[in-house]
Write a structure and sequence with these properties.
A six-stranded mixed β-sheet has the order 1-4-5-6-7-8, with helices on both faces. The protein has a two-stranded parallel ribbon with strand order 2-3. It is of the alpha+beta class and 331 residues long. The chain folds into two domains: 207 residues, Lambda Exonuclease, Chain A, CATH 3.90.320; 62 residues, no CATH class.
């Protein structure tokens, strides 16, 4: 039996085998040989080119085997450690299937509407999954992903709201959609990767579903989930790939009625003054880890590249304050 090709894997195959070991076995790739490859060799083995825009499904782009540092990887290293990033990449936590399907379906309906009904089958939401009726709908779907009509109505409502708000729907569809790019960053000696919802000649747009598209709320959300790192990385990759963009913007749409929409841009000054420093520090750490194979945890002081078995910690200020208030100190 011929080995499967990475780019031909289905969503279900990846969802059921979504860890490094299972994927290598599915593709008949020797684990030892895989670990000895550098990122460029791994990309070549998977059939993914460097330095050009390509079409790549989300479940392949986010696959445990897919080499290169993405924006979610940058966030993981910054908020955690390289060790946790590596573990979560190789052995991702199982995500809720319904949530994954909703996100994929919404993006497909908004960004690639002509392909939606060839990939999704809408069925009555009051039908139980273990019923004979559901099994009949599954047969009628002929391999397409099933999605409840109640969920589809939300998707339609969100898309309609995008159309009515400065016709963001047209803007999102006016250029290229759902393209990925992998580039070699010669400064940091590593592969970087990105998958863009929409891009035009001078803009990159990211479609976000959110609980609140209010500017103040989204500012907090951006800091919490590292959207500024995403902004920084997307523009860098486009420039390295020879397709530089002038602007990165978010089109945020709320997931509940009335599906409010807002267009948001993180201050370029903030990206330059704050995010740039964080992003470069993360790339330095990632470059070190890929070169040495040392995906370090808490024990590493990266500034001097030294590890220590014990770290001196101070008690939190609130705890000290409570003691001072309760016991008191002389002098």
């Amino acid at each position: 039996m011929a080995a499967k090709k990475f780019t031909e894997l289905t969503f279900d195959e990846v969802y059921q085998n979504n860890d490094k070991d299972s994927m290598l076995e599915l593709l008949s790739i020797d684990p030892i040989e895989w670990d000895l490859m550098d990122e460029k060799e791994q990309l070549e083995t998977l059939g993914i080119p460097l330095g050009e825009w390509i079409k790549l499904e989300d479940y392949l782009y986010h696959n445990p085997l897919t080499p290169g540092l993405s924006s979610s990887g940058m966030k993981s290293i910054y908020h955690n450690t390289p060790a946790k990033y590596r573990a979560l990449k190789d052995y991702p936590e199982k995500q809720n299937r319904d949530a994954l399907v909703f996100g994929r379906a919404f993006h497909k309906y908004v960004l690639e509407p002509d392909e939606f009904h060839s990939e999704y089958f809408v069925y009555p939401g009051d039908v139980r999954k273990n019923s004979a009726a559901y099994k009949k709908y599954a047969e009628d779907a002929k391999g397409r992903e099933l999605i409840k009509d109640t969920v589809f109505k939300d998707i339609e409502g969100m898309a309609e709201s995008l159309k009515n708000h400065y016709n963001f729907l047209h803007l999102l569809r006016s250029g290229h959609n759902e393209r990925a790019m992998f580039v070699w960053d010669d400064e940091y000696k590593c592969v970087l990767r990105v998958k863009v919802d929409a891009d035009t000649n001078d803009k990159v747009l990211d479609l976000k579903t959110t609980t609140s598209a209010n500017a103040n709320d989204f500012s907090v959300t951006s800091a919490k989930f590292g959207y500024d790192l995403q902004n920084w990385l997307y523009l860098r990759i486009c420039e390295l790939g020879g397709d530089a963009k002038k602007m990165f913007g978010f089109v945020a749409v709320e997931k509940t009625r009335p599906y409010l929409v807002n267009g948001l841009v993180i201050s370029p000054e903030d990206i330059t003054y704050y995010t740039d420093k964080i992003a470069k520090k993360v790339l330095e750490q990632y470059s070190y880890c890929t070169e040495t194979g040392d995906w370090f945890g808490y024990e590493m002081n990266f500034e001097n590249k030294k590890k220590t078995p014990f770290q001196v910690i101070s008690l939190p200020n609130w705890y000290k304050y409570n003691i001072e208030e309760e016991v008191g100190f002389e002098g």
